[in-house]
Predict the 3D structure of the following.
Amino acid sequence: MPEPRIALPPVDSVTITTFVDNYVDMLLMDQGPAKRLGLPTAETPRVPASVLEEGQTADNPLAEHGFSALIDVHSSGRAHTVLFDTGMTPSGLVENMRRLGHSPKDIEAIVLSHGHLDHTTGMDGLVRTLGRLSVPVFLHPEAWSRRRLVLPGREPFELPTPSKSAIKGAGFEIIEEKQPSFLLDGSLLITGEVDRTTDFEKGFPIHQAKRNGDWQPDPLILDDQAAILNVRDKGLVVLTGCGHAGIVNIIRYARKLTGVERIYTVIGGFHLNGPLFEPIIPLVCNALAELDPQVIVPAHCTGWKAVHALAARFPNAFVQNSVGTRFEL
């Protein structure tokens, strides 16, 4: 028997604002649903700069290797706000929020796509900014795993591990789920573990996790999860962190879970950078052509070669991401 589908009610509109990404470009122009930050204005905050005649310069947002985005959902006259991932450095997220005129106090819930430090470390700045506030944090139970990368010819590099006791001790309500779960009165769906159905998205072969005292292969990174929304008359919006589950697997799973075939927008990391993943770029492009998303926004760990391949293959759908970009969907 087929698995039961999860009814995901349509919402009127969604706005996704990029707070942390690997790239920032102040000269990008508005493009379709992407509304750009643009050049500084008279209202842009200033910081001292003694080497300039004016003695100051604009306090522009900064890029870093990581990802974080704010999801604003609007439906039936109501608005909700969810933070998806928190970036690489302790203060990068909260500082960019300040620069972009957003308050962390407006966040109703936090979703962590997986446990890697470039998606979780910004929790530190939120703790220092918010103090004790019982905001729920949704993540997969394996996000707390100790992990490392085993690179040929080098000593293994152990990745810093998020601290469950520290986050819980700061007042956050931790909610661990392997299965799909709803937020915001059922209008936002978190995938939980993603079905792996393609024969080319095989995970991260140099990735290991410590289990039962031993380092063991952990290529699938099962805690990798995405957020899904259904925009009325447009289709699904899929937001990923790194996309370790495979961007094609994730989109197919979103369709399978919801029964909604039409893919409106996919935003986030596609993890196609480097020699381990670049060989599958043509296969990903071919699969995306069949899935036919109307807006494709590769970010963070997608990689230069993959970004350019996607831009060439999907010139009408491709949108360059940048810190400060607001997607009005």
